[in-house]
């Protein structure tokens, strides 16, 4: 699973999101990339993903949330995606 965090300097919710994703990545074994919202790519991604303010979290290239992150919501979605991937791996071709 690919996780991208769209951040901005001096953003308290961004710091919370970084800490949350670091903890969850240790539990679930995914890596987190970050992108500055003020960069050209960050602005384009925010616009395409409907991120109105930072932080923005993208899971596998899809917008998941923006603003203050919900650990429960994020954990539930990560587990759902991981179950889906595991189910695909066990499917009979």
Describe the structure.
This protein is an alpha+beta fold and 93 residues long. The chain has a single domain (2-90), classed as Glutaredoxin (3-Layer(aba) Sandwich). It has three helices and four strands, in the order βαβαββα. It has a four-stranded mixed sheet with strand order 2-1-3-4, sandwiched between helices. Helix 1 links the parallel strand 1 and strand 2.
Briefly say what this structure is:
51% of the residues lie in helices and 23% in strands. The protein is an alpha+beta fold.
Helix content: 40-55%
Described by the principal axes of the CA atoms, the overall outline is: globular
The CATH superfamily name is: Glutaredoxin
Uncertain regions spanning at least 5 consecutive residues: none
What is the SS-derived class? alpha+beta
Largest sheet: 4 strands, mixed
CATH architecture: 3-Layer(aba) Sandwich
Oligomer: single chain
Cα-atom Rg, whole angstroms?
Answer: 14 Å
Please tally the helical runs, counting DSSP H or I stretches of 4 or more residues: 3
Count up the domains. Answer: 1
Strand order of the largest sheet: 2-1-3-4
CATH class: Alpha Beta
Number of strands: 4
Work out the strand percent: 15-25%
What's the end-to-end separation, in Å? 22 Å
Mean pLDDT: 92
Assign the CATH topology.
Glutaredoxin
Order of helices and strands: EHEHEEH
């Amino acid at each position: 699973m690919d996780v991208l965090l769209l951040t901005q300097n001096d953003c308290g919710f961004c710091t919370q999101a970084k800490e949350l994703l670091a903890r969850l990545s240790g539990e679930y074994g995914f890596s987190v990339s970050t992108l500055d919202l003020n960069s050209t790519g960050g602005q384009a991604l925010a616009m395409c993903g409907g991120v109105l303010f930072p932080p923005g979290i993208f899971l596998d290239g899809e917008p998941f949330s923006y603003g203050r992150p919900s650990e429960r919501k994020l954990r539930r979605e990560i587990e759902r995606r991981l179950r889906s991937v595991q189910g695909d791996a066990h499917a009979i071709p």
